[in-house]
Write a structure and sequence with these properties.
The structure is a single chain. The chain is α/β, with parallel strands linked by helices and 393 residues long. The protein folds into 3 domains: 76 residues, no CATH class; 229 residues, Rossmann fold (3-Layer(aba) Sandwich), CATH 3.40.50; 55 residues, Arc Repressor Mutant, subunit A, CATH 1.10.10.10. The protein contains 18 helices and 11 strands. The strands form 2 sheets. The chain has a 9-stranded mixed sheet with strand order 1-2-6-5-4-3-7-8-9, sandwiched between helices. Strands 10-11 form a two-stranded antiparallel ribbon. Helix 9 links the parallel strand 3 and strand 4.
Length: 393
């Protein structure tokens, strides 16, 4: 059996991220790892237990035929397989091996790199995810969250970055659509087989993502989604991207699971602040409060965090420009002394402003030129009246 076929069988018989399987593949290679699983009784206890589960899943099917059927199903869909032996493999995914060291139990242990990836879309996986940002959040998102996700997705794609998410309702879909709206690339990492559309309502969206970006899955064709698979999938979203933005998330949510994985992987973790009264922002606000996440509100702020040093600099946040911007302290003081609704002389203005008559006469022409002050025929001055906005009839 070839290495590629062995990886297909392993991915079909064992759930992604399994630590025992990862150790076998790392020490013996995929072909020998598969042989040990299928010859289970003589293996060590942990391998024997995994072998029992794998052989139960295989049943009486031939492993060669299992691999060929999976590959044929993918080919009919226009999908392909990418393995760690390929040049197109996203090497950032290998960081997952480091993350699970020292973990105690459960999903923290079983967070190993993928055995293989099923890919739908013409682009290079390694190149597409190299400059990518994960944008994640609540399925039951608010209008604020949907707006922010769309704007961030659009802005990142417009600047040449890939938007990576999970293809779910709410924030995920808004981020994908924002990127597509900018004519950019986006990647959806699925928690089911590459041939399964979940949620079903996103069939059109997935077709567009496959045409303009990539659909990725660790599960073989035919695999169905369930809760644990979404949590397992989240580790890959965090690993593939340079940073993760939590747009909106409840106190307990899958998005916070992705955020935790990003933090454990030493990826840049960011979050958008939300209203203090919003339940869908409790989790994202908590990530900021606990100093895990950097507060961001614009694509430029995100790229300042994930880009190389000096590559991006987000413009400082400034208030709305006013007519007084650019006035020096003395000129502003003279302007404050000019009344509205009645005209007075330069000498009177000087008294009110507490400046010399010379300083008042020197600065008033500049205020007239900027149309902040009006001078009448007698050489007196008053503040220009502004038009009053009236409601439409």
């Amino acid at each position: 059996m070839t290495v590629t076929l062995a990886r297909i069988v392993l991915a079909s018989l064992v759930e992604p991220g399994n630590a025992v399987l990862a150790r076998l593949v790392r020490t013996s290679g995929p072909v020998e790892a598969l042989r040990q699983l299928l010859d289970g009784p003589d293996a060590p206890d942990d391998v024997a237990s995994l072998s029992l589960a794998a052989r139960a899943r295989l049943g009486d099917r031939d492993p060669w035929r299992l691999a060929e059927e999976a590959r044929e199903a993918a080919e009919r869909l226009g999908a392909r397989l990418v393995t760690p032996e390929d040049a197109d493999w996203p090497t950032r995914a290998e960081d997952l091996a480091r993350m699970s060291r020292g973990a105690a139990t459960g999903l923290d242990v079983d967070s190993q790199p993928p055995v293989c990836l099923w890919v739908r879309g013409a682009g290079s996986v390694a190149e597409t995810v190299d400059r990518s940002v994960a944008v994640v959040g609540a399925r039951a998102a608010s209008q604020y969250g949907l707006y922010m996700a769309t704007e961030l997705g659009f802005g990142l794609a417009e600047r040449g970055w890939t938007v990576l998410s999970g293809g779910a309702y709410g924030i995920d879909a808004a981020a994908h659509r924002g990127a597509l709206g900018a004519g950019g690339r986006t990647v959806a990492v699925l928690a089911c087989g590459i041939d399964t559309v979940y949620p079903v309502a996103h069939a059109g969206l997935f077709e567009q993502i496959a045409a303009e970006g990539l659909l990725l899955s660790e599960w073989p064709p035919g695999a169905t989604p369930h809760r644990t698979r979404f949590l397992v999938r989240n580790r890959l979203i965090a690993a593939l991207s340079r940073g993760t933005v939590v747009v909106e998330a409840a106190a307990r949510s899958g998005a916070r699971s992705t955020a935790r994985r990003a933090f454990q992987l030493n990826r840049v973790l960011m979050a958008c602040p939300g209203p203090a009264t919003s339940a869908t922002s409790e989790g994202s606000n908590a990530e900021i409060r606990d100093h895990h996440a950097r507060l961001v509100t614009t694509p430029d702020q995100i790229l300042e965090e994930v880009g190389r040093i000096g590559e991006y600099a987000a413009p400082p946040v400034r208030g709305r420009a006013t007519e007084r911007d650019g006035l020096d302290a003395l000129t502003a003081r003279v302007l404050d002394a000019v009344p509205r609704g009645r005209a007075i002389s330069a000498a009177e203005i000087a008294v009110v402003a507490g400046v010399s008559p010379t300083d008042a006469r020197r600065n008033l022409p500049a205020l007239v030129a900027r149309e902040l002050v009006v001078e009448d025929e007698q050489g007196r001055f008053q503040t220009r009246r502004r038009p009053v906005a009236r409601p439409a009839a």
